[in-house]
């Protein structure tokens, strides 16, 4: 499995912590989230599990792990992006965070064309789900994701209202839906907008799992 925590590494302007401190905390949070995924897979599967963490922005691989640790029959884990792209993992797990940061880092990443042709299981959480749609404008509706962290670095590059996603599945996804977002959802949705609540998911037997 490739675990991608890049979206949660985005700088938050509303934080009193320095960028370095924010990143340190985000990485610690990412490790905890990754472990929860591993624990869940171990409960569900009887097979050994190999996992690497991949940060799209820096193209770095960290924390290569195989569980149980006594397993010796599996191929070596990738140590760089080139090896990662030929590894053909059974699962790619892209975690949540700032959708705009995630989308921008994917723009020039070799992981993007890899995702477009990937045929195994894709699991996206929050931002990781939103980027799968044909559009990512739903990230604007709540005002919780800050697009200016990208716009200030790349002025004029993006029209977020019309920016295209990966187009892997569905038109657009509105995540973490509950009644408090009903009015915003109804005002902005189109015929193809899919709302997904906290305990819900969108599954496809063609492209994988969101």
Automatic annotation (TrEMBL):
<dbReference type="InterPro" id="IPR005320">
    <property type="entry name" value="Peptidase_S51"/>
</dbReference>
<dbReference type="InterPro" id="IPR029062">
    <property type="entry name" value="Class_I_gatase-like"/>
</dbReference>
<keyword id="KW-0720">Serine protease</keyword>
<dbReference type="GO" id="GO:0008236">
    <property type="term" value="F:serine-type peptidase activity"/>
</dbReference>
<comment type="similarity">
    <text>Belongs to the peptidase S51 family.</text>
</comment>
<dbReference type="GO" id="GO:0006508">
    <property type="term" value="P:proteolysis"/>
</dbReference>
<protein>
    <submittedName>
        <fullName>Uncharacterized protein</fullName>
    </submittedName>
</protein>
<dbReference type="Pfam" id="PF03575">
    <property type="entry name" value="Peptidase_S51"/>
</dbReference>
<keyword id="KW-0378">Hydrolase</keyword>
<keyword id="KW-0645">Protease</keyword>
């Amino acid at each position: 499995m490739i675990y991608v925590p890049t979206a949660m590494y985005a700088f938050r302007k509303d934080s009193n912590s320095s960028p370095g401190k924010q990143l340190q905390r985000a990485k610690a949070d990412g490790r905890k989230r990754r472990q929860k995924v591993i624990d869940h897979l171990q409960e569900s599967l009887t097979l050994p599990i190999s996992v690497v963490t991949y940060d799209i922005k820096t193209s770095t691989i960290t924390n290569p792990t195989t569980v149980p640790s006594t397993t010796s029959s599996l191929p070596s884990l990738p140590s760089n992006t080139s090896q990662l792209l030929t590894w053909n993992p059974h699962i790619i797990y892209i975690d949540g965070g700032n959708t705009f940061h995630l989308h921008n880092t994917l723009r020039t990443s070799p992981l993007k064309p890899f995702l477009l042709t990937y045929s195994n299981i894709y699991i996206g959480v929050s931002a990781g789900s939103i980027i799968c749609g044909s559009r990512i404008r739903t990230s604007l509706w709540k005002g919780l994701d800050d697009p200016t962290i990208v716009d200030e670095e790349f002025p004029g590059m993006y029209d977020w209202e019309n920016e295209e996603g990966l187009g892997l599945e569905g038109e657009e996804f509105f995540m973490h839906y509950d009644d408090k977002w009903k009015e915003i959802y109804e005002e902005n949705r189109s015929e193809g907008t899919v709302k997904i609540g906290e305990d819900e998911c969108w599954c496809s037997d063609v492209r994988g799992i969101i």
